[in-house]
Amino acid sequence: MLRNIISVDVEEYFHPTELAKCVRQEEWMALPSLVEPQTRQVLEIFDRHRIQGTFFVLGWVAERYPGLVREIASRGHEIACHSFFHRLVYDLTPEEFREDTKRAVHAIENACGITPRAYRAPSYSITKRSLWALEVLVECGFTHDSSIYPIEHDRYGIPGFGRNCRTLLTPSGPIVEVPIATVQLSEQTATPVGGGAYLRLLPYRYTAAGIRRINDADQQPACMYFHPWELDPDHPRLARGLVSRLRTYSGLRSMKRKIERLLSDFEFTTLTAVHPAVPANVEAHI
Ligand SMILES: [Zn+2]
Fold it and tell me: 9 C-alpha vs ligand 1 centroid, how far in Å?
């Protein structure tokens, strides 16, 4: 059976972009923190299924809870980077992005002694107008990126970008791009099956059929993701507005069961185990 990628974006329940309108960065410290117990629940599930995954840790979390990052690493998981402040890449200048990325790398290194080599932007915010970010990531020592969603969405995505993993050549060197799982519906349209809100909001069989199609018809591994807060149906509800509330809170009660089923039904491992960096294997220039 093909091995797929399971990845976890380690952040607090108040970090998602949907909440940026309701919770300012200055208020984060005043909110109750739940990232430790929520992530431990994920670690316990992964241990039970004997699965190693890739954990994209927010620098802000690594700085406050270094013990949690050490624990993730000590259980054999891959430590990767999810920025420092969870700001959208296309809202930053290249200089601001570089600063945020370096700060996150330092926080993660200080926490566990590991230099992260894989990056995921908050809300998949490497889009057509922020592709320059890949060059900055190479300069910061990253070999892998998983920030480009090849779909149409109001906030992110590069439709038609390419649904499979490939090595991109930036002016500073190569980087392996690992897109989140999608299924090709027509020549123009890819639909997401990668997890997160889609796994929460839609029936499990939709995600399972999508992975099967990617594995069997495309003969490709699928890259899946979710957040620790998605397994905690009782965390404080901060999102306002119908769409934001739906996107953030629907399906929380069934998420744990769906994740457990996913881990039983398919083979999963870390991002770099599935896609080791092959420097000579450049497939596209950006
Ligand atoms: Zn995030």
Answer: 6
